[in-house]
Specification:
The complex is a heterodimer of chains A (80) and B (206). By secondary structure, chain A is mainly α. Chain A has a domain of 55 residues. Helix content of chain A is 69%, strand content 0%. In chain A, 41% of the residues are buried. By secondary structure, chain B is mainly α. Helix content of chain B is 72%, strand content 0%. In chain B, α5 packs across α8 and α8 packs across α10. The longest helix of chain B has 21 residues. Classes of the chains: A mainly alpha (80), B mainly alpha (206). The interface between A and B is large, with 45 and 66 residues.
């Protein structure tokens, strides 16, 4: 076997343990993100109403970052 | 600034005189991005540019607003996507995928628990065998492209967006490529009676 780049095993195992057959992609997450953010800001448990979005946010660092910045932006401006 | 319903926002922005709505939306987005990106080291000029680009995008994509959230929430989402896309591009501009992956190749990714002075030599041996099995599964199951993308994202911390650009694809397809890679590894481990949970437990024992 040739020398191959090695992946960080523990991080990989955590991701594999959380891997599901059906996962939404970044596009679907983006489509739902404004509604998800509003549920979050209104204290309405978006993770229960939109579990696939929550799971995607747990896995995807890009979408997670966008979610956090939107939350900070809207939290600051109020609901205008 | 006067309150507008979703319909009023859309109607005004589509009208022959959209200036007042655009000016108000600009204020909302600018204030939001200023707070949202407070930790991202952006200048006032950056914020102005992001908002300008976001307004163009919002007007272009107005038809895709489904009205499931407040219009300003949707618009802020668009603005954040515009801003972070540009910030990621800048931050990673000088990093090539090859450098990242090659650099990692030379490194030692053996978990610290393997090299620690573990109390039980038998357990050290078991850990070594499991590590070898996992490395073999990774080598046999993943394509070069999947492996490189996983290393860049998981070890290199490169955003999916930037890996996607370097691989000539888009972020959504990159997520699906990584999902497929995780599914392949998961299935193969199952066939070999290795569960991720058990492997994690093995490596977290002292």
């Amino acid at each position: 076997m040739t020398t191959l780049p090695k992946l960080p095993i523990q991080k990989l195992m955590k991701q594999l343990a959380a891997t599901r057959t059906v996962e939404i992609g970044c596009d679907e997450c983006y489509d739902e993100l404004d509604r998800f953010v509003e549920l979050e800001l209104n204290g309405k448990k978006p993770e229960e109403a939109m579990p696939l979005v929550q799971e995607h946010l747990n896995r995807c660092p890009d979408c997670r970052e966008e979610f956090e910045v939107i939350l900070a932006a809207l939290g600051a401006v109020g609901r205008g | 600034m006067r309150e507008r319903s979703n319909q009023e926002w859309c109607d005004e922005l589509r009208s022959p005189q959209p200036d007042s709505a655009i000016a108000d939306l600009r204020v909302v987005l600018l204030r939001g991005l200023r707070y949202g990106l407070a930790e991202h080291g952006v200048t006032a000029a950056d914020l102005e540019d992001f908002v300008q680009d976001a307004l163009v995008k919002i007007l272009r994509e107005l038809a895709s607003f489904r009205g499931e959230a407040r219009f300003t929430t949707w618009a802020q989402k668009v603005a954040v996507r515009v801003a972070l896309t540009e910030l990621r591009r800048r931050r990673w501009r000088d990093v090539s995928l090859q450098d990242l992956v090659a650099g990692r190749d030379e490194g030692d990714f053996t978990p610290a628990v393997l090299t620690d002075s573990a109390p039980d030599p038998g357990q050290v041996a078991v850990r070594g065998q499991v590590m070898d099995a996992i490395q073999r599964i990774i080598a046999e199951e993943l394509t070069d492209r999947q492996r490189q993308a996983m290393i860049a994202v998981m070890q290199g911390g490169m955003p999916l967006q930037e890996v996607a650009v370097r691989m000539g694809t888009n972020r959504n397809a990159m997520y699906k490529l990584l999902h497929d890679a995780r599914r392949r590894l998961q299935k193969r481990m199952l066939r070999e009676n290795l569960s991720p949970q058990n492997v994690l437990a093995l490596f977290s024992q002292s």
